[in-house]
Amino acid sequence: MIHHRNTYLTEDQSADLLREQIVRQKAFIFARFGDGAIECITRKRGVTCDGEVYSEALGNELIRVWHLLFSKPGTYLGDWFSASFSPESPHGLYRKEYEDLVALVQWNGKFSPTWVHFEALLLMRESESLAKFYRAIRKDNRKKLLMGPKEWQPAAAILRADFFEVPVSPRLFDLYLGELKYGLKSRDFDVLLYGAGMAGNIPVVDYWYDHPEKTYINLGSALDPIYRGHTRRQQLSLVRAHRLFTGIVSR
């Protein structure tokens, strides 16, 4: 395990920690930068699993908001090295790049985040801790906004949130960044739940920086197994994912 870790929390311990913040209605941000962001920041060429194309401009903006996450208290970061990877994944390839990315900001006197498990909120396991987290979200009486692809819209009703659609586009950064920024500014919410692609991190972190009194939670691909199909090999089957969410609605 690399040197920056200040916690060795499991997926369930991480979900419990984040749920506690929700129950207490604490303001915080939970963010995750995965291998796509690392590749883009380090000027690799490629696309994400949703076809989002890397570019130098996108990489520059990602590193800018990465620094912002270390500039205020109340940041929870998903540790990329805690994720489960296939043997051919970039986990080993980009170890130094990830360490360098963390070292850029971790030891320069700014705020230190709380590191939690990268997969804390993903539907990759049937877990009471995971169900309790989403149940806490559903029960939270604050104004909630779910920001994600159009297929996620039914989840907004389950989580008792308004919905903000994010296009799934290879050029999300180039074509829709302004729309995402305006969309956040024009909506009334206290809690933002988002899975908005790699570029979606940019307007969210910027908005958090200006409004740290609110809560922001990166769901990543968490809702995909139910609403979009499998986008990660480790995700629960549709039947098992539905079973988990049925428990959330019925309790």
Description:
This protein has 251 residues and is an alpha/beta fold. The protein has one domain. It has ten helices and seven strands. A seven-stranded parallel beta sheet has the order 3-2-1-7-6-4-5, sandwiched between helices. Helix 8 links the parallel strand 6 and strand 7 (215-218). The radius of gyration is 17 Å and the shape is globular. The termini are far apart. The mean pLDDT is 86.
User: What is the total number of structural domains?
Assistant: 1
**Shape descriptor:** globular
Gyration radius, rounded: 17 Å
SS-derived structural category: alpha/beta
Largest sheet, strands/sense/barrel = 7 strands, parallel
Helical run tally: 10
| Low-confidence parts | none
Question: Terminal Cα separation, in Å?
Answer: 38 Å
The portion of residues assigned to helices is 40-55%
What pattern of helices and strands is seen along the backbone? HEHHEHEHEHEHEHEHH
Tell how many strands the DSSP assignment holds: 7
Give the averaged pLDDT, no decimals.
86
Question: What share of residues are in beta strands?
Answer: 5-15%
- Assembly category: single chain
Strand order of the largest sheet: 3-2-1-7-6-4-5
Salient structural properties:
globular; alpha/beta; 41% helix; 251 residues; seven-stranded parallel β-sheet
Outline:
The chain contains ten helices and seven strands.
Note the topology.
Blueprint: H1 11-23, E1 29-32, H2 35-41, H3 56-68, E2 75-79, H4 95-106, E3 114-117, H5 128-139, E4 144-148, H6 153-158, E5 162-165, H7 172-185, E6 191-194, H8 201-210, E7 215-218, H9 224-227, H10 238-250
Parallel strand pairs: 1-2, 1-7, 2-3, 4-5, 4-6, 6-7
Helix pairs in contact: 1-5, 2-3, 3-8, 5-10, 7-8
